[in-house]
Design goal:
It is built from 20 helices and eight strands. Helix content is 49%, strand content 9%. It has 416 residues and is α/β, with parallel strands linked by helices. Helix 9 runs antiparallel to helix 11 and helix 16 crosses helix 20.
């Protein structure tokens, strides 16, 4: 395996050129079956990779569905598809894109909502991941386009409510620009990765991202409530859980972001104060609003259900972790494991720096922790490589890390 030594190519030239609108203008949104068929035929008859992006309504809607799908391919131009107007039925587009390479930026954010529409790539190039592997410190789309292509993209609507209809023209302009230069960026990054000897690594990473299963639902997601550190007792935790679950059910039913139904701060405040009646709950901040006054019986019911739970059904004070405990507790629980982890991090950081890579892309931190917490009995390079492979590491990662990791795990622990 070739080990690269070159730094990322530095661009040359004048100041970046502002790109405020697509070269061919903003196309009409595809919102009916006939227009979808025409767009699919154009894309099927075009050539080369297909730039793909989506717009969601995170922060506004409960679901993470795509409210707009943007595509661009040489010979077809840019296509903007409204999957909501089409009832999520994009069969002609599914057929047209079959067998093509898709170019996405931060593909893991878009692939799940595309899969909901039966849109799945046959091959993938992720420009954000490519930028990381190439050693660029800043890998936002606009930053890479500016640095490598010399254009400054018009930005500003990424956090908008894309469930709004009709979509404003300036939003559509922004959405079209996100795929305007994506294929060109792909080509430059591919050349850079090839020059550095990392193109094979990138292809393994792209395939892993393409075939990755959907993330498993979090265990006890209510524990991620902002401000939950204020909670001191299992009974109060039960109140947060009950309020969170009630809010989640309402948000899902209405397809509204949970924080817009009731903010996290209100969940925690109600759990801490534990008001006995509606008047006490309505006296708390946030609950004084008109919407919460209408829902006061619902929120009070959640608190009463938590208060009525037997002790055996109260949540644990802290979440039970699958796998090793948090690394900051290792020194107390298992000093030898803490020493192994420190040695492993030092070794992997050196490998990452030698190859101009972020250490988290060299090897998943969770896999490193698990291996250090419970290493194999056989600490040979081959045995460690097998552990990494079983943990999902790619072959290029194993080739770079198995030997130094085995050495770190085998090193005798020094004592003060």
């Amino acid at each position: 395996m070739d080990v690269p030594s070159d730094e990322p190519t530095e661009p040359t030239g004048a100041d970046p050129v502002p790109l405020t609108e697509p070269a061919d203008g903003v196309p009409p949104v595809v919102a009916d079956a006939q227009a979808l068929r025409r767009a699919a035929d154009a894309l099927a008859g075009a050539t080369g990779p297909v730039a793909v992006d989506t717009e969601r309504a995170s922060g506004y809607r409960y679901s993470q569905r795509a409210y707009l799908v943007q595509l661009r391919r040489a010979g077809a131009g840019t296509v903007l598809v409204d999957p909501i107007a089409l009832g999520g039925r994009l069969d002609p587009l599914v057929a047209a894109l079959d067998g093509t390479e898709w170019v996405l930026h931060a593909a893991s954010q878009d692939l799940p909502c595309l899969a909901e529409l039966d849109l799945r790539p046959s091959a993938l190039f992720d420009t954000e991941l490519a930028g990381r592997l190439a050693g660029f410190e800043r890998v936002a789309l606009g930053t890479l386009v500016e640095r490598l292509l010399g254009y400054r993209l018009e930005k500003g609507h990424g956090a908008a409510d894309w469930s709004r209809r009709p979509l404003p023209e300036d939003w559509l302009n922004y959405a079209a620009l996100d795929v305007e230069l994506l294929v060109e960026l792909r080509d430059v990054l591919e050349d850079e990765l090839d020059k550095q000897g990392k193109l094979g690594w990138a292809r393994e990473e792209f395939e892993a991202a393409r075939t990755a299963p959907l993330p498993r639902p979090r265990a006890e997601p209510w524990r991620r409530t902002s401000g939950i550190h204020r909670i001191r007792s299992p009974r109060q935790l039960a109140a947060v859980r009950s309020l969170w679950e009630t809010r989640d059910a309402l948000a899902r039913e209405r397809d509204i972001a949970p924080g817009r139904v009731l903010p996290d701060s209100a969940l925690v405040e109600a759990a801490v104060r534990n008001p006995p009646d509606e008047a006490g709950l309505l006296a708390l901040p946030v609950f004084r609003g008109r919407a919460q006054r209408r829902m006061v019986a619902v929120w009070l019911g959640a608190l009463h259900r938590a208060a009525a739970l037997p002790r055996t059904e109260l949540p644990e004070s802290s979440q039970q972790h699958e796998g090793p405990p948090p690394a900051n507790r290792w020194s107390d629980k298992d000093p030898a494991a803490a020493a192994r982890l420190a040695a492993a991090r030092t070794a992997l950081t050196a490998v990452a720096e030698a190859n101009t890579l972020p250490v988290e892309n060299l090897l998943l931190p969770d896999l490193v922790r698990r291996t250090c917490w419970q290493p194999p009995e056989d600490l040979s390079t081959g045995a460690v490589a097998s552990v990494l492979r079983e943990g999902g590491a790619r072959e290029w990662q194993i080739g770079l890390t198995a030997e130094p990791l085995a050495a770190a795990l085998s090193a005798p622990r020094t004592t003060s």
